Amino acid sequence: MYFQYNRRDEKFFSFIVKTDFSESHHRFDRRGRYVSGFRELAESLCGIRERRVSKSYIKKYVIDNFGYNLSRTCDEIRPTYHHVESCQETVPEAIIAFLEGEHFTDVIRTAVSLGGDCDTLTDIATAMGEAYYGCPKELMKECEDRIEKSMQEVLGGFVSARQGVVAVKADWKTEPMPDHKETFILKRHFTEEELKNLRRGNVPKEMEDKWFFYIKRNRLYAHRSWTGIMIYMVELTPGGDEHKVTVNRLPEQYGCTSIEEDREKLNNLLDWWTEEIYDYYHEWLEETVNYLKREGRIPDDEEIEDGGDKTKGSHTD
Fold first, then answer.
1. Are 55 and 132 in contact (CB under 8 A)?
2. pLDDT (tens digit, 9 = 90+) per residue, 3-15?
3. Is 98 within 8 Å of 48 (Cβ atoms)?
4. 243: closest CA among 277, 212, 218, 271?
5. d(Cα 243, Cα 238) in Å, to the nearest integer?
6. Are residues 186 and 68 both part of a single domain?
7. Are residues 11 and 131 in the same domain?
8. Residue numbers of the domain that contains 188
9. Crossing angle of helices 118-133 and 37-51, rounded to 10°
10. Backbone φ and ψ of 22, nearest 5°
11. Residue 285 in contact with residue 292, Cβ under 8 Å?
């Protein structure tokens, strides 16, 4: 089975399903076309990843648009649930397991506990759990270590392909730069490799992924992921070392009023964004530490533990 799902336009869902479903797996949508339960799953995943919606929203959306019964609980499903391979009797149960799970591994355990065709059911629930909670790094590494080399190469190809995807404005809900703004010149040299990495942009994947940014016509747009508010707009000068920056100065959207502070913050962000792989988690940690230091809540020499790694508010570990 292979499917690709794209939600660039909120009013249009493009999907491709290539599989060997039996007739019993299919059901008609409102236009009389065959669809599978993977459409429901795909739309739910897009809702979680791209719109940061709540579980209650996902539940209502699936009920309203696909008519699945999500009113049952896992305790009510278990006593009579049995091995069944149809979408109609697998996808709803998987979604319910996801809705009841309190964290990523809890979603897995809850789905497995239902029995039936639990490998398929758990795959579906886990996909939603990863989109909502993220996958613990230690669990991801353990799984990767158990995969044979040939499959690791396949997964590496998927990762490389994903990294090659270029972010565009339509990937995220965004707000325009307000009229209340300020400009300054940022002096910085970019190598060709750094510009290549920067042009990929970033579509947030987890709660800690605080920035959505993309480049259009040599102009970098940087938005806060939770609100879509534009903080910086940078007019990149190809081959040059001076770049015009427009910064948000609307108090209710952005509290900073210092050009020097913004110059430092933006330079620091660009250090992260021009890496081959944007490490948003440690960038978020660094940003948090620096904020707490500026507010006087922790000493300047305070270190924060992160699973054995430490950050001191600098780019290097």
1. yes
2. 333 333 333 333 3
3. no
4. 218
5. 9
6. no
7. yes
8. 166-278
9. 20
10. -80, 170
11. no
